[in-house]
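Lab meeting, action items carried over

1. Structure of the two-component assembly. Owner: GW. Status: complete.
Input record:
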Amino acid sequence: DTGVSQNPRHKITKRGQNVTFRCDPISEHNRLYWYRQTLGQGPEFLTYFQNEAQLEKSRLLSDRFSAERPKGSFSTLEIQRTEQGDSAMYLCASSPTGARTYTEAFFGQGTRLTVV
Amino acid sequence: EDQVTQSPEALRLQEGESSSLNCSYTVSGLRGLFWYRQDPGKGPEFLFTLYSAGEEKEKERLKATLTKKESFLHITAPKPEDSATYLCAVQADSNTGKLIFGQGTTLQVKP
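Predicted assembly:
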């Protein structure tokens, strides 16, 4: 198991273009999260999947953002009509569910998006 | 509203100079408090989970403690390789497991 994998690592795009990021979680982790992190800040929650079901979305996730997790495996995050304010590090994390009331989340290396 | 505040924002230490990082939290029902280490340009790396007040966890030169209102990350005799941003996060909702992060403390250890 190589951990959470994210692709691409870096993406530079022109304002108004669409971009898509991919996340491959740790196998058998049924919880998957997307976070966004800007410089000097901690990660902010965007959305959460339990298997293939998207169960929670943050108010930060505007209509231009969409996330999917077909078949409960990998996930994609798409941003349509990118704006300069979308420039950030997009982080994916996964965790198992279990009998404990808390579970550790493991993060990928992130995708750094720069909108020019 | 659930909130996490870390202090200081930045900390410079000489190699071997011990210190502590603070994480204060306000949460309706704490399900877990997490410490992560983040190197520049990389994703957060899990360090510790603390669940109940009085709990302590140790890993090499790091020791995390938890009270009802805050957590401390104690760094004993730090080395330059301990330089990183340390993030604290709380989990209030066990149904989703989502985390609320503080802004982080950037630690620089000089040789």
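2. GW to write a short summary for the group page. Key points so far: The two ends of chain A are 36 Å apart (CA to CA). The longest strand of chain A covers residues 88-95.
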